[in-house]
Specification:
Number of helices of chain B: 1
Helix content of chain B: over 70%
Largest interface: A-B, 38 and 22 residues
Number of strands of chain A: 0
Number of domains of chain A: 1
Radius of gyration of chain B: 15 Å
Distance between the termini of chain B: 54 Å
Mean pLDDT of chain B: 94
Largest sheet of chain A: none
Radius of gyration of chain A: 19 Å
Oligomer: heterodimer
Low-confidence stretches of chain B: none
Number of strands of chain B: 0
Mean pLDDT of chain A: 93
Helix content of chain A: over 70%
Amino acid sequence: MTAARAIVRRGLTLVTLAFVGLAGVYVLALGHTPIEARQGLAQKIFYLHVPAAWCSLLAFSLVGIASALYLWLHEPRLDRFAAASAEVGVAFSAVMLTTGPIWAKPIWGTWWTWDARLTLTLFLFFLFIGYLALRAAVHEPTERARFSAVVGILGMLLVPFIHLSVYLFRTLHPQPIVLKPSAPSLPPEMLRTLLSSMAVFTLLYIGLVTTRYGIALTEEAREEATDAS
Amino acid sequence: MPPENGAYMVAAYVVAPVILVGYAVWLWKRSKQ
């Protein structure tokens, strides 16, 4: 129980540091990064939308990897990590799926379009909402871990399709700017802000997953104590 | 001359931390139970 609380404290410290970093990213993005000539101020949404997308795809990929390893090794820590990463991934997806349409309205003239990238991303979000609902519905720990691991692996299989969808299908969504075979196509000041934001969001992901993992550990210890008494 | 669309930027810069800080606060409250 004490170890679990220490993990929660460590996680919350990282989360606090990440929010301080996020304030720094706001200063950098709003005060020290040039305004893009064609898109205007709306382009600055990019510094939140892209890191949120990066963290949600990272989170769901790690859910899939941890789930596959769980099915092989039957190690409860892997299941606990997968559950934590899925919940945090849903939070980052919510940021991605709200900031995206807010950018699209002034740039595309519409909040939403059913193209491959957007539709697949929304599907991934719903899939992981289903993953969390499944975990809440099944109470037997081993069965819950096994069923949700299968869903987690299926969710991970969508991630490469989402990244490559802008190449595979005709889509309105911009092509990758940083994660692509050639060098990043951004002016240095914009790239610096984007990379800073991605680092801060990644730290936030680590902090939130650590906190959520510690909470799961605390809850398990409490359940075991209740069962024993 | 860049287009005037600062209101959309402000909306996104408000919505993102509301979701993330809201989730972090929910986790913090859950850890206190």
